[in-house]
Design goal:
The protein is an all-alpha fold and about 180 residues long. It folds into 2 domains: about 5-85, RNA polymerase sigma factor, region 2, helix turn helix motif (Rna Polymerase Sigma Factor, Chain: A); about 95-175, Winged helix-like DNA-binding domain superfamily/Winged helix DNA-binding domain (Arc Repressor Mutant, subunit A). It has helices spanning about 5-10, 15-40, 40-60, 70-85, 105-125, 130-140, 145-150, 155-175. α1 (about 5-10) packs across α2 and α4 (about 70-85) runs parallel beside α7. The chain is globular.
Length: about 180
């Protein structure tokens, strides 16, 4: 896929199946990113659906100034900010409800991996939402600093500083839990 732009162009030209391609390609990453705003996986999924609804029915113009993915995440970010402005009270979903153990031959290893994810997820929830966003965009979604800057409406230098502070805060939370992680 040409970073999504070719599918979007096909959709605008009348190929409805192209929107399905976009949804399949970006839904999981968008949901995780939006969860950094909402702290609620169900609300994040709703915002992800609203992002694709906006693409499908309002058909905003993609200018090509950034990658299609960066543009899409910017739309999702703006929807999340609007949502947060409207929401008065935060509702949290336990991380235990978000992860299921796979039914594989090696259940113990899968369990340990899921436990680590749960611990990291819980610790990320203790961080400021900007820290969660920058960690999610760079380390989970694989965006570059400049793409992350475009999505978060910040300069590349601000992203570098924000990422440094986010890693420092996450390291501190890990240490409080007695966990050492060499990557931080």
């Amino acid at each position: 896929m040409d970073n999504g732009s070719s599918s979007y162009d096909r959709y605008l030209a009348g190929d409805d199946s192209a929107m399905g391609d976009l949804v399949r390609e970006y839904k999981d990453g968008l949901t995780l990113f939006l969860n950094s705003f909402t702290n609620d996986l169900f609300e994040a999924e709703e915002l992800m659906e609203e992002t694709f609804f906006k693409l499908a029915y309002k058909k905003p113009k993609y200018s090509g100034k950034s990658s299609f993915r960066t543009w899409l995440y910017s739309i999702a970010r703006n929807l999340a900010i609007d949502y947060l402005r409207k929401r008065k009270k935060a509702v949290f979903v336990s991380a235990d409800e978000c992860f299921d153990i796979a039914d594989d031959e090696n259940i113990e290893d899968n369990y340990l991996v899921e436990e680590r994810k749960i611990i990291i997820h819980k610790l990320l929830q203790k961080l400021k939402y900007e820290y969660r966003q920058v960690i999610c965009l760079i380390y989970i979604e694989g965006f570059s600093n400049s793409e992350t800057a475009a999505i978060m409406h910040k300069s590349s230098r601000q992203i570098t500083n924000l990422l440094y502070q986010a890693k420092k805060a996450l390291r501190s939370e890990l240490e409080k839990e007695g966990i050492t992680y060499a990557g931080l």
